[in-house]
Amino acid sequence: MNAFNSIFRSVIVAGSVALTTFSISTSVSxxxxxxxxxxxxxxxxxxxxxxxxxxxxxxxxxVGFDPAIGAEIAKRIGVEAEIVTTAWDGIIGxxxxxxxxxxxxxxxxxxDRKKVVDFVGPYYRMSRGIxxxxxxxxxxxxxxxxxxxxxxxxxxxxxxxxxQAGWEIRTYKGLPELLLELDNGRxxxxxxxxxxxxxxxxxxxxxxAQLDTSDLAGVADQAGIAIRKGNPDLGAAMQAALDEMQADxxxxxxxxxxxxxxxx
Length: 264
Description:
The protein is α/β, with parallel strands linked by helices. The chain has two domains: 152 residues, 3-Layer(aba) Sandwich (D-Maltodextrin-Binding Protein, domain 2), CATH 3.40.190.10; 94 residues, 3-Layer(aba) Sandwich (D-Maltodextrin-Binding Protein, domain 2), CATH 3.40.190. It is 43% helix and 27% strand. Strands 1, 5, 6, 7, 8, 9, 10, 11 and 12 form a nine-stranded mixed β-sheet that branches. β3 and β4 form a beta hairpin. α3 packs across α9. It is globular, with a radius of gyration of 22 Å.
């Protein structure tokens, strides 16, 4: 009986601690906007491997469309932006583990992701593109069976590519690696957002051709800013800042600088 009482008391104590911890966590989560404002900094994550949306320049600075959007949102809610780079396939896990406060990294809004994070936005549109080297014998999507297809690990394009019959999927860290592997002939095609590749072709003269995907359903997507669930004040403040940017022309200036035009 004494042993039982001891165990019972231990369970009650453990339960009380768990409830206290839950209450504290809930309180902190509800006050996250206030906490960020008190610190004066919002930590914003991205891969840093997705030019021109986010990449590391020669001065070892993370620049591009995403950090510019994130910094402007931060300014409008009265804080500084601290940019954090992390591997894409673990970026949502990092957000949930409180390693940063938001993801402004060209993340597609999907139903699966909305189960675990909330989204601000969307802040731009994107479309799926399939690219091969110029001179490739692949003339259309049907010609990709049995071919080596490169994708970025953790992107929605990876999941989509794996659903296609007969494709040999190879995963990489980001767009620069994909383009290099395609150029060197180690893969036959890449599946990724079309805007960055089209800009690379325009700016760097990459010998790459885009396959026609006009007959595919669901190739368009929208990018959103991910935050932890349970933070309506933070989400509302960030959404208001984004709406203001789009209304007063600041968004268009940023888009023109980094991607050559409005991509809403």
